[in-house]
Amino acid sequence: MELFDSHAHYNDEKFNEDKEEVLKQVYNAGSVTKLVCAGYNLDSSRKAVEIANTHDFVYATCGISPNDISDLEENISQNLELQLNQLEELAKNKKVVAIGEIGLDYYWNKENKEDQKIVFKKQIELANKLSLPIVIHTREAIFDTLEILKTNPVINKGIFHCCPLNLDLIKEGLKLGFYISFAGPITFKNSKNAVDAISAVPLDKILIETDSPYLAPEPKRGTRNNSANVIYMAQKIADVKNLKLEQVANATYQNAQTIFKLL
Questions:
Q1: Do 154 and 124 form a contact (C-beta atoms < 8 A)?
Q2: 4 near 263, Cβ under 8 Å?
Q3: Burial of 144 (C-beta count, 10 Å sphere; 0-12/13-18/19+)
């Protein structure tokens, strides 16, 4: 059985002291044989590419998240163009499999919604230019996220990362041809809509992720997350869909290979 962690952040400062040790432990454990280290600004995207280039089983994404655009806003058109040019060069690396994470976040950032939309749209353009899928972060911005995706078609589609357990978002995202990636929250004891959300996604459109070092699943909740814990998401999906763990592992692995063009 092989597992694919479709979204983790070994470029996060929480792994500064022991990143290599953790990655070695994850790989040597044998079940997680591929993972994606996701960028969220220019610096973290560079780090993601560096990590991917030095570990055969790691891939990278490059992007500017909605929570990381504050340094662009003083002169957004000029600063964004400069950063997008650098992201484009980074994303040409053979280990980069998507543009992301990108999107909208109105939970943490309510004052710059229009700037978030500009940055999101420009990165969709970049993904289309490079023939890459996108990895979407959306929080309390479902309507605007879907509206942008409908009016700015993404040629190679993409993934709703750590997808909010909102049935309308999931249904509309699936209609647009996107994959739905589930993280630790589906395992939380107080999680609402987890069963309905999992049930709404066909097995050939589901991905699993840890979003490490955040959102550790039950029974690891409250600890620093790592890719080995992705098995708990696979087990939860198997339980809800009345499938064997191996079936979910195989399907999610194949789905990740497909969307990231690793076949």
A1: yes
A2: no
A3: middle
The Cα–Cα gap between 195 and 251 comes to: 18
On the question of pLDDT at 205 being above 90, the answer is: yes
Nearest CA to 253 out of 179, 164, 188, 148 is that of 179
Q: Is 135 helix (H, G, I), strand (E, B) or coil?
A: strand
Name the band, by pLDDT with cuts 50, 70 and 90, for residue 79: confident
Q: In what order do the strands lie in the sheet with 96-105?
A: 3-8, 32-38, 58-62, 96-105, 134-139, 158-160, 179-182, 206-208
Please check the confidence at residue 130 and state whether its pLDDT lies above 90: yes
pLDDT bin (cut points 50, 70, 90) of residue 78 is confident
CA atoms within a 13 Å half-sphere pointing along the CA-CB vector of 233: 37
Q: What is the pLDDT of residues 155-167, one digit of tens each?
A: 999 999 999 999 9
Domains and CATH numbers, the chain: 3-259 (3.20.20.140)
- Give the alpha-carbon dihedral of 77, 83, 88, 93, to 10 degrees: -170
Indicate yes or no: pTM above 0.85. Answer: yes
